[in-house]
Amino acid sequence: MPSVRCMSLREGSSRSFSVPQERRVATALPGPNSLALQARRVASVSRGAGTLANIYMDHAAGAVLVDVDGNRLIDLGSGIGVNTIGHAHPDVAAAVAEQATKLMHTLFTVTPYENYVRVAEKLAQITPGTHEKHSILVNSGAEAVENAAKIARRFTGRRAIVVLDHAFHGRTNMTMAMTYRPWPEREGMGPFPGEIYSVPVSYPFRDGLTGEEAAERTIDYIETHVGPRDVAAFFAEPIQGDGGIVIPAPGYFTRIAEYCRDNGIVFVADEIQAGIARTGAWYSIEHHGDVVPDLVCTAKGIAGGMPLAAVTGRAEIMDAVQPGGIGGTFGGNPVSTAAALAVFDVIEREDLIGEAQRVERTLVSRIGGWTDKYDVVGEVRGKGAMFGVELVEPGTRKPNPALLKHVLKHATEHGVVPLDAGSWDSVLRLLPPVVISDALIDDAAGVLEEAIESFQGVGEPGITPAS
Ligand SMILES: *Cc1c(COP(=O)(O)O)cnc(C)c1O
Fold first, then answer.
1. What is the C-alpha end-to-end distance of the chain, expressed in Å?
2. pTM attached to this predicted model
3. Which UniProt keywords apply (predicted)?
């Protein structure tokens, strides 16, 4: 068991963190030390690793990042949904430190160890459905998705992989091909593998369809473009992340899962961004009724920042692969799995699923009214600590990427770090750690309001843009 430290400090509503949970901007952002690091970075790091804000971080706790100039920033991104339980949780740090002194690597497929088995046991327990489940552990989300595709093809003996419009599944060759938008993830980097088909999703803000209508459109596309008997797997993010926090309409996945079942198609939930307590449930598919995926991909939030990912699913599907057919050198390494076990423990002990639900209530009451207040906000939607703000041209549904760019610049210059999203780069994405306080949400929302109001041509006449 991971050792328990500072537990009393973190219990209940008054959590305590090693960094004050308050924004403090003491220098221009980026500050002088960040600028110096940026100069070295440009001289040594590929520009292909693009950056949202060139503010270099030194340490963090809870929902506050501290940069190399001593500024404290509110983290509304969690490193894209990774630090769900908050930065620097002492239990996770202790579990990692202890494991690192004990056993760092053997390779599970050479000589195994208990942590890997314990993570697989836990995943079988928390993923939807009561059937027998088996898991494989790997290093990254993309690797989990690729493995799920391999496993589904091996199980079905079929070729085609169906994905949804606006999906994000990763940056390896296979998962680039499964990812919707060409820029910046794909351009100039083909050729890509074939037999991957993108079909229309349910995107209520843009298509106005009910879940049933959108599902029929999706199914019709499969029938007329692919042929269901050639489809090995249907991949879906139950709440799309990079695609813009797109939440398919009620009933959509019920019908899709039924169609998959009737046609022998493996239904794969990519829960890499939305899973592990982020949305106020262990997995975001739980918001779509009692839909049970055949396979579930987990990554990002599973190990508090350590690299770990998993495919979990029906034992007969997972075991269709011959021994040696899936695996990898670092997959499920002892330290990452120790971190994951500590994360599971913290989520349960500190009721972080309940905390994500609290974040949802606070966000709805604090920013839900933006659609009435601003004619450039088309919709505010989300579950738990996973929200999207659809930015539009005034009074229309036309995407407004210029506004998103402005909001991100203003926010990061004022000590708030949100994320971008959407196929048109026009969805402001909020993925804070679920331990973020209501006061921090309120302060961050105020900065985002200033950002929206200071966008040229928007807001009440006479509003002075914040400096
Ligand atoms: C981030 C992400 C991936 C890819 O994960 P990596 O760890 O970056 O490879 C896949 N699917 C979804 C939904 C993601 O958010």
1. 50
2. 0.95
3. Aminotransferase, Pyridoxal phosphate, Transferase
